[in-house]
Design a protein that fits this description.
This protein has 247 residues and is an alpha+beta fold. It contains 6 helices and 10 strands. The strands form 2 sheets. It has an 8-stranded antiparallel beta sheet with strand order 3-4-8-6-9-2-1-10.
Length: 247
């Protein structure tokens, strides 16, 4: 069995490498962020503090997520894409059991079997809205994927790719190691969540958590347990049939 330190390094690398195309070079990243600024300024309202609810119909069942009102740029961007039908027909293209399930790559629509996915996006990124410890990577958290700090020091989020945390439970000694490595303490109430419900605490403070699953974690569990290839893509496609704004 892999040691915790080995697993931790593997998991962090997995999210950083494939979250919305880590092969993007610095020049492309600059262009992408310029496009993001334009789209953010033009289309995303900033002053609405209300939560929102979205139903995600998948080939394995339905998931309902709440989008946090205090991450308004991520909330409103997600809502806009949902209303535009952007996610319809896309796949959960990266699935790692006891870690997370990731979706939102437009290139995954009708992708041939075995194709490596994860580079697609709408052509822009979003400013980080990281609000730890108010929002953290507990089981069921909805967060934005992104490229790594080496090319994305501002930790801007993908314009479309997201992941839902499954994770696992942790004991206090392991949480102490994670806190030491991250340089940030883990509050006691959050420790209790990670010890009893589980999650991925090593991602806290590095990615924007902008929502959570309120119904359908059994479906998320079905997704995380499917058989995958060497790229962590499910061998049998897990498709997002549609998304609908509920409230």
């Amino acid at each position: 069995m892999k040691s915790f330190k080995t697993m931790l390094g593997t998991f962090v690398a997995a999210v950083l490498f494939t979250a919305c195309g880590a092969t993007t070079n610095n020049s492309n990243q600059d262009n992408q962020q310029d496009m993001a600024n334009e789209k953010t300024n033009e289309k995303i309202p900033e002053n609405n503090s209300n939560d929102a609810t979205v139903e995600i119909k998948t080939s394995l069942g339905d998931i309902i997520v709440k989008l946090f009102g205090d991450t308004p740029q991520h909330r409103d961007n997600f809502l806009r894409l949902v209303k535009d039908g952007y996610y319809n027909g896309t796949l959960f293209h990266r699935v790692i059991n006891e870690f997370m399930v990731q979706a939102g790559d437009p290139n995954s629509k009708n992708a041939p079997a075995g194709k490596m996915l994860g580079d697609g996006d709408p052509g822009y990124t979003l400013p980080a809205e990281i609000d730890y410890p108010n929002h953290f990577h507990k089981r069921g958290a909805l967060a934005a994927a992104r490229t790594g700090d080496n090319i994305n020091p501002e930790r801007r989020s993908s314009g479309s790719q997201f992941y839902i945390v499954t994770g696992r439970t942790f004991d206090d000694p392991t949480l102490d190691i994670i806190a030491q490595r991250s340089g940030q303490p883990i509050p006691e109430d959050i420790r209790q969540v990670y010890k009893t419900e589980g999650g991925t605490p090593h991602l806290d403070g590095a990615y924007t958590v902008f929502g959570e699953v309120v119904k359908g974690m059994d479906v998320v569990d079905k997704i995380q347990q499917v058989e995958t290839d060497r790229y962590d893509r499910p061998l049998d496609d897990v498709k997002i049939i549609s998304m609908t704004v509920v409230d």
